[in-house]
Amino acid sequence: MENLFQPEAVDEVISRIDKLQPAAQRQWGKMEVAQMLAHCSAALDMASGQLILPRIFIGRLLGPFVKPIYTNEKPFSQNNPTDKKLVVADKRDFLREQEQLKVKVRQFHDGGEERCTAHPHPFFGALTPQQWSRGMYKHLDHHLRQFGA
User: Fold this and answer.
1) Coil, strand, or helix at residue 111?
2) pLDDT tens for residues 37-67?
3) Of 65, 123, 128, 142, which has the fewest CB atoms closer than 10 Å, so is most exposed?
4) Are 137 and 13 a contacting pair, CB within 8 Å?
5) How many CB atoms within 10 Å of residue 131?
6) What is the pLDDT of residues 69-96, one digit of tens each?
């Protein structure tokens, strides 16, 4: 399974981000394309320790049982719930968000395992750097598929 520590996976994700257009229509969900890009940047901030979110109660209960969903080979399904702190509801500038996400993908990759957060995921709990890297790849793949990229 691809992960963001693999150079070829990073190249693939960046290429898919580059293919997005400001008028891209979502195939599911509520976010516009620029909001999705900002949301994905916030998720990478969480994985790199720049954004620390507290564990949510339901995650403490269910997280250990569903953690494999985050790290297995199966793509995320459509319309999964989003942590309220990662919801982007305001209008965003597409080009700015597109460039920012590409920078964050590269920074996460370049930082490697040493720069990956040691803080738990708000829902899934403690993750290894490899699990964070795989989960972030799956998250990006999910949202890029959402907009046909």
Assistant:
1) helix
2) 999 999 999 999 999 999 999 999 999 999 9
3) 65
4) yes
5) 19
6) 998 999 999 988 888 889 999 999 999 9
